[in-house]
Design goal:
Elements lengths: L1 H9 L17 E8 L7 E7 L10 E5 L19 H10 L6 E6 L6 H5 L2 H6 L2 H8 L17 H19 L9 E6 L1 H12 L6 E5 L14 H12 L7 E7 L8 H13 L7 E6 L6 H7 L1 H8 L4
Parallel strand pairs: 3-4, 3-5, 5-6, 6-7, 7-8
Antiparallel strand pairs: 1-2, 2-4
Helix pairs in contact: 8-9
């Protein structure tokens, strides 16, 4: 396996030998520093491969947003992580899911909201409300929440037209719809939902944890959730070959989500989804954090990646 990883690494032009690469308990991380794009700002990509990665096998691919938060709590801003390598390795060891690799796409820091807020639902909003959002100030800095405008269409073009072809060329992937998935939480849940709607011929499943349906900081007099519901009612992909996973907790920011998720659930049911291809779960006591998402990550992974799915 080590020789195979060496061959992979030497073939990656942007591979980094940086000691800052996340440490994992299972498998291995391959870092691509500042992956270039004509659509969005460069960003790091952390690709996790299992310890038994082999040139004789092919692998499903899970694309995950907020890639710097996935693997190593010693390197994250809040000292939390998703525990992706442990969760997947445990499921694979139990033969509950197919072999897969994970492509962790780092967010762009202050551009995160711009990249992850779905563009078409934004454009459905009243122009005055759009302007108010674009002038909104980030709670944690003096920069605008959408300091770079809305870039989610460009972000998805980067993912589909630049990153995915690169991954499929350099790794042993199954590039088809049935083996390509997208996953994220909060704003990452929104962009995962948007990805499967905008590119239904690319992504066969989406996992949206603690989806941030309010889009900003307040649920009061907020037209954003309704805009998302309208968009989904017109753009959900066919239920015959797609799978959707949603969830939410009951604490901190997640405490706001239930009424909006229930509205989305109604839209999904109307579109023909059932228990075979759609799952929405509530987790009492779970809050809006990587620690909570880690506790339940095995559920969406098994739902999307289970053998003979």
């Amino acid at each position: 396996m080590r020789s195979l990883v060496f061959l992979i690494v030497t073939g990656l032009l942007f591979y980094s030998c940086n000691s800052n690469i996340s440490k994992v308990n299972n498998g291995e991380i391959i870092r691509i520093d500042s992956f270039p794009s004509k659509f969005v700002s460069p960003r790091n990509i952390d690709i996790w491969i299992p310890s038994n990665y082999s040139s004789d096998s092919l692998y499903a691919v899970m694309y995950m947003h907020d890639g710097q938060m996935l693997y190593d709590s010693s390197k994250t801003w809040n000292k939390q992580e998703w525990g992706v390598d442990e969760v997947i390795s445990n499921l694979q060891n139990k033969r509950l899911i197919q072999n897969c690799i994970v492509v962790g796409i780092w967010n762009s820091g202050p551009g995160r909201h711009s990249d992850y807020f779905p563009q078409k639902p934004f454009e459905q909003l009243d122009i005055r409300f759009q302007d108010s959002l674009l002038n909104n100030v980030n709670r944690n800095s003096s920069e605008g929440l959408f300091y770079n405008g809305i870039q989610s269409d460009n972000y998805l073009k980067f993912l589909v037209e630049e990153l995915k072809p690169y991954v499929d060329k350099n790794f042993q992937t199954k590039p088809d719809l049935d083996n390509t998935f997208v996953c994220g939480s909060s704003m990452g849940g929104l962009i995962s939902m948007y990805a499967i709607c905008e590119y239904p011929n690319v992504f066969g499943g989406a996992a949206c944890l603690s989806t941030h349906w309010i889009g900003t900081f307040s649920a009061d007099n907020n037209p954003i959730p309704e805009s998302f519901a309208t968009y989904l009612s017109n753009n959900l992909p066919g239920s015959n070959n797609h799978k959707l996973y949603f969830d939410y907790g009951t604490e901190t920011l997640d405490a706001l989500y239930e009424p909006f998720q229930l509205k989305i659930d109604s839209v999904i049911k109307t579109a023909g989804y059932d228990q075979n291809n759609w799952l929405t779960l509530r987790f009492d006591g779970h809050d809006h954090s990587e620690n909570s998402w880690r506790k339940r990550l095995d559920i969406p992974f098994e739902f999307l990646l289970r053998i003979n799915n």
